[in-house]
Amino acid sequence: MTRSIKTQLSLALMAFAALFMIFGGWLVYNQIRASFYREFDERLRLQALSLTSGIRKERDYVNVIFSDRYLREFTQESSTWFFQLWAPEPLDRKDLPNTFKSNSLTRNQDLPRECGSLDNPVYINFQLPNGKPGRGIGITFTPIKDWSIRRDDRVKSVDVDMFMAQDRTQLDTSLRAVAKHLIIAGGIGLFSTIILVPPLLTRLLRPLKLVSRQTEAINADTLHERFNPNQPEEIRPIILALNGLLERLEISFVRERRFVSDIAHELRTPIAEIKTFTELKIKWPDKTEGDFEKEILKMIRRMESLVSNLLQLARMESTPSDTLQSQVEIQQEVENCLGQLTQIIESRNISIKKQIEQNSSLLTHPDILHTIVFNLLSNAVYHSPEGSSLKIQSSATPFNLCVTNPAPNLKQEDLPLMFDRLWRQEKSRSSTERHGLGLSLAQTCAEALGMKISAQLDQENRLSMTLQLMGDE
Amino acid sequence: MRVLVVEDSDSLRSTLSQALQNSGYVVDSAADGEEGLWFAESNDYDVVVLDIMLPKMDGLTVLERLRQNGCETNVLLLTAKDSLKDKVHGLQIGADDYLVKPFDLEELLARVWALCRRKYGRKDNRIEIEDLTLDLNARTVSRNGSPIYLTAREFKVFEYLALRRGQIVSKTEIESNVYDSEAELMSNVVESTICDLRRKLTPDADDTGNIIYTRRGMGYYIKKEQSE
Fold it and tell me: Hey, is the C-beta of A300 within 8 angstroms of any chain B C-beta?
């Protein structure tokens, strides 16, 4: 099952927040650590430099002149500061070895002899002889000659290695405290994210929920209602699409309702006729005028015609035409259809003008094409005023068959509705000969053959029905 | 009693007209709304049976025009539309009853008769005039239980006078309510029918007990009982 957008967004935001906290915390910790170490190292360097100032080159040794007053931290055994000097000559006194240690170091304790230049000293973390963590600076320098021998060129300068260290327990403690605070802050941030994100998302997604509720409430009676388009930018396209969908649904429902209502009328009226006529015959068998059987048969035929047309329409809509195609001569087809309509053409005194291209033919399903042409011509003949003229035009390439007839009562707004099932221009639906299914059937048949029928009404209120192959229009 | 049937279906119009005529009504019929409105405004009908979906002018418009023009004739709407909305709308604009197609002929006749009774302010089907009993439903007349045989036309005239008991009814009113508008009336047909009625309804040969009176130059009437 697909997880909700809220859940997905919550998880994504929480994952992002967690990553942000970890990475951000790590970055902040490193910055602080680097800053702490810079400060620590600078203090080491300054202390180391101050030590170098107390070391003088004497004639036979290197003298270490420390004033306890200034370097008190090195003189105590419990001090956190340490240093050690290495020189090629005795240090401090002529009778002493070449190495010198701070009082904080015992005789057996040594510091690492890793040194760099004054400009580029070596800093290392290591374990102090007392077992505590420490950090030290190693430099190699040349002690200045004592003022008493400064002019004696026979005394050569020597390089002295010095390594100075300090207990960094406090630094590590501070860094651990920083890390601890960062982890707590990150945890609070993550916890806040977990607590705040879901309700925040609920609030942000409220328009979607409202749309969802409104959509659930939509039924056949509320299709006229629309969603409020004043919504956040992300939802607006959905709202507009839904409103469009509702509009199309409403139009379809109105059409379906009209169709059902029309069907009801088409069937109820003949049923009412048959029923009342039969009841009349039963109640007053001797007083009833008219031929009972003929009247009933007429009404039944009308219903049969309606049902037959509806079934044909349903068949054409639900199943594609079979592929039994053959070459159909258009002129011959038109003549056949007109032949079937001769009686009504003569009784209504309709004149026909034909402009059909000679030998024009079409490879198609002949029966379905016949249904289309017959319905187009029949519609034109029945609905033209008596004594009017009807025009039939056809060309071969591209194929087109156009039937034009005067339609004085037709309006432009009727054109989109003409192909609806059971549509009639006369709202009373009084005619017992026409059901309003012909054009709908013709259009459905045309679609089955890959064709289309379009209707146009000119300024003189002449209706032109044009049958064309799809893509040629 | 006079009924107008406005229905565009030829077959249904003809059937309804025959059924109503056979039930003793004088029936006029129209095939479209405009003709129906003209008939309804030109004559005094007891009931108009009006289809809704009509050519030229729909039934609801006909009904609205009739009510706007002050016509209070009872109207029975007849239609294939059966939704509650349609029914309520029809009744709201002034219809007195509503019947959905297909309907039972008996029901239609009963409803038309109920509307007629409503017009004359009656709730039962029997009218007692002295020792005469007029059964409007069975279309019979009897005196103390003994039947008196009347022709259809005589019954219609007697029924009309009985329904309007206490009022003077002119010869023209009788003609328009008892005879079809298309029928060619002989000049003395009403007088002749009244004469026949008096003969059949008066028990004594010396005309004592006559119940249909003549007001010269005005018309005929049946006396209203003191208690009524």
Answer: no
How many structural domains comprise chain A? 2
Q: How far is B189 from chain A (nearest CA, A)?
A: 24
Last residue of a domain, one of A175, A202, A225: A175
In a domain, A270, yes or no: no
pLDDT in tens, A137-155: 999 999 888 887 777 677 7
- CATH number of domain containing A375: 3.30.565.10
pLDDT band at B184 (very low <50, low <70, confident <90, very high): low
CA distance A317 to chain B (A): 27
Interface contact A428-B54, CB threshold 8 A? yes
Q: pTM for this structure?
A: 0.54
pLDDT of residue A78: 66
Work out the pLDDT band at A34, boundaries 50, 70, 90.
very high
What secondary structure, in 3-state letters, does chain B show? CEEEEECCCHHHHHHHHHHHHHCCCEEEEECCHHHHHHHHHHCCCCEEEEECCCCCCCHHHHHHHHHHCCCCCEEEEEECCCCHHHHHHHHHCCCCEEEECCCCHHHHHHHHHHHHHHHCCCCCCEEEECCEEEECCCCEEEECCEEECCCHHHHHHHHHHHHCCCCCECHHHHHHHHCCCCCCCCCCHHHHHHHHHHHHHCCCCCCCCCCEEEECCCEEEECCCCCC
For residue B9, the chain A residue with the least C-alpha distance is A430
Residue A239 in domain: no
Please tell me the predicted confidence (pLDDT) of residue A269: 79
pLDDT at A181 over 90: yes
Identify the domain boundary among A144, A175, A206: A175
- Does A343 fall in a domain? yes
Q: What is the residue range of A361's domain?
A: 326-469
CB contact under 8 A, A275 and B105: yes
